[in-house]
Amino acid sequence: MSYHIELRHLRYFQVLAEELRFRRAAERLFISQPGLTRQIKQMEELYGVKLFERSKRHVELTPAGQFLKHEVDFIFNHLDMVQHHLESISMGKEAELRIGFIGSAAQKVIPDLLLDLKHKFPDIQAVLEETSNSQQLEMLLNHKIDLGFVRMPNVPAGIQKLKISDESFAVILPESHAINCDNFESLEQLKEEQFILFSSEYSSFYYDLIMSIFEDHHFQPKVLHKSVNALTIFKLVEEGIGLAIVPSSLKEGYDLKIKQVPLDHLTQRTGLYAVWKENNRNPALQNALQSLYS
Q1: With left for phi above 0 and alpha for psi between -120 and 50, is residue 290 left, alpha or beta?
Q2: What is the pTM of this model?
């Protein structure tokens, strides 16, 4: 009987799943609370499953409800994408390309891609969003972006990847720090220093990779702060609050009173990957991939 489900049912379910309060969900939907209750009950009857566990003071999703919430989010995100494309077509534009990226991709990869697209496909409109590695993968799976740039070699099923670059790391220090390229011998010289690192939210793989650098030099770093934002890390280093280890290219484009000591001799390296959902039918994505592969 599930073919009787309509989009309005799914919208009612989505809002209630977000709020987990019938009164607040009904207010957002501009319907009565009893009306919302009837719609949810109708959905449960049509699907033949219980979607919410509810008592007088508590509402939560059942396992079936959690599954449906993920699928409903995907459906509405996809419909939003269709609407954006239709609007672009109506305005004479070829398509909209939504790109997620981490800070290190903004220095060269993103500008180079946009310049190439402007030359080859001038009607593509790019929408850019800087965000973490893990958040990009979630946004790809939910059709919130078309293309991402991450430092994660392992991606979920359904996600395709292309290695864009491979590079070494560097230590970032304040300009006034005594260590420089001429007197640097080993990371062990900095074992008493405090460090500011990208947090594991940026990428658990990337964080573990950085920690393995310290392990190879036989000390655990004194991690004072963690961040997912490169500029925040660099500003803290500039103020003398700590040191950082980042991909070598990341310092480019920042006019700050900091310096870097290359760690080219280390075995650890970091790759930048373009990632996209394999069943994404956005024609602008195919044009972007053509530019990246060329």
Answers
A1: alpha
A2: 0.67
